[in-house]
């Protein structure tokens, strides 16, 4: 018994050193007494004790079971607690996975991989966004991380792209990334995109890595060249300033381009120099343009250049209304409501 107590103390002290006090701790001990059996414990405050386990109670360790089956039933609850403790939305995970079938050890392993990338506070949000990360084999995730490192994505950038687009770890990144880099470097833009510029583009819009196929990229580039008629210099500027255009719908881009070109008298070159207009809704563009006309800040025949587009599309409603339109936020809101009621 004395030997057992020493072993228990050593194990508990070791676990105290390895884990934060508030975290769930799984402890596996073996005991030789009246026959050989395994004791499995989950750290926590114990309310009840049994004769041979007073020492564990004194150390605030709760005995969950002496049999693997009973332990595993409670282990599933600990998976939920563990995920909840690190900020995972159980509601989102439950929509895609059966949490009761997850192994706590494997879940901790996935969290360890994400922390190894540099994610700490963000682990919960990353798993919530892509719960399937929890069931992908470790070696597959490692291969995808390695693929990004191999093309030259730096550690800080790697952490950013996974946080912004967790789908990178669930897509076949290891099979497609090199081809995407080659495709972007080979684009007919002037001057050609260098490798560092391509990496900047991918880091700025990691969805290109996660969800764009080579075919979809080729289709979008062809659309901007043939339909929107951007030349090779303009196309290069657009990609570096707003790489997300490669993920936008062609219909939406065409409608915004047409409105700016036909209604706002903005030239193709001005639009190319202010590509962030493509991330704004057409409704927002119209509301602001028409309000400037309404208050007399824009005349019907005035030409809007790239600077003007950028100013009009400033993100803050109050600044736009007061500094750009020289009006008030209240008047701007009233005008918007009048448009929506028409």
From TrEMBL:
Transmembrane parts of this sequence: none
One term of GO molecular function: nucleic acid binding
Pfam families with a match to the protein in the record: mTERF
Record-level GO cellular component terms: mitochondrion
One Gene Ontology biological process: regulation of mitochondrial transcription
Organism superkingdom: Eukaryota
Entries under InterPro entries matching the protein: MTERF, MTERF_sf
Keywords: Transit peptide
Protein family (similarity comment): Belongs to the mTERF family.
Name listed for the protein in its UniProt record: Uncharacterized protein
